[in-house]
Structure prediction request, 457 residues.
Amino acid sequence: MENEKVKNENKMGVMPVNRLLLTMSLPMMASMLVQALYNIVDSIFVSRINENALTAVSLAFPIQSLLIAFSGGTGVGVNALLSRALGEKDYNTANKAAMNGLFLAVATYVVAMVAGLFAARPFYLGQTRDEQIVGYGVQYLSIVCIFSIGMLFQMMLERLLQSTGLTVYSMISQIAGAVTNVIFDPIMIFGLFGFPKMGVAGAAAATIFGQCLAGGLALYFNLKFNKEIRLGLRGFRPELRIIKRIYAVGIPSIIMQAIGSVMTYGMNRILIGFTSTATAVFGVYFKVQSFVFMPVFGLNNGMVPIIAYNYGAGKRDRVIRTIRLSVFYALAIMAVGLAIFQIFPQYLLALFDASENMLRIGIPALRTISLSFLFAAFGIVSSSMFQALGNGVYSMFVSLTRQLIVLLPAAWLLSLSGQVDLVWLAFPIAECFSFALSVIFTVRISKKVINRIGTAA
Prediction:
């Protein structure tokens, strides 16, 4: 009888923790690396035009991040409502969550389109007066925003697949979009195979093609294979009650993701006061570091449901082992990233056709910023652990400390020295503060929550 009970229990409660963590995390790591590929390919090819083109694309990143924050945060809210409704066998609410999520994607697109039409040039002029950078940037950002419907639908439709357990189809759509982007980037930027030479605009167009293809595939997979929800416009109307429930969960996630956009914009403003090359270096760093950080985020995505499930099941030992293994793997990933950034910074910059001036600024930048990686490993895992145990406020404080409260003031104060090499120290300084805060919060949540798991109320 006991064997039958174990057999029928969810794998998150019985599978050996190490194997479970790897099984849950590795597919998500692969998906995250595909997203990182999206981020880096445009910049690699654009850098072959000239350094100002690379700077222009780098300066667009805060707006792109903001779009992703709104779409991703809304998706989190839809995912939570839809999954809960399915668990309760409330298929009507699940369908409403899906359709209202798609409606919110359209509403976000309207705002993005207006921003692309009217705000791109003022956005760039607020950061630089270099007409070539502004010209390149307006081309790139206008196209990305005006045709962002593909990206917004892709993200929302992939959330619907993930929330119903069809993660393999989500991965297929992501990979298809990334491969399309990689193929069309050089073709459209440099005018190969009879295509017109579009330059920076070609990079934006290739990105849009990839996103639209991925969105189309995600829609097809939902209609063909997702039997738990029904997508259709017949009888649909937006429901404020459903939208409120979506954003009750989604707004905190939007805020946490948007913090990064604000930080990037602030750093760009500080760095361009030295030279546009420093801004290009920061853009390169952000692209390259995603190949280190994205696997850790994928690890976190696999860790959270394991902790949450075993927390609810009262299995303290499995919660603790999951946290320890996650910290170990995150440290291992970050240690590899640290070694690469310390030993091979010139080769990382060479991917972007770095000039001598860019190498002079970029090599110490990459080495200095990467000193924060090991501290970041613990901070990232602990933040996700806080969320899994029901305390998202701790996560928000850690994120605010890392990216705004300490980083930007430290960077500004160091910039007063007139030495750009010192500005990069703001990153390890901010990470040390967030590490200390993470340790304090971990001790508190261990005493108040983890140590009481499985005990009588």
Remarks:
- The chain is about 80% helix and 0% strand.
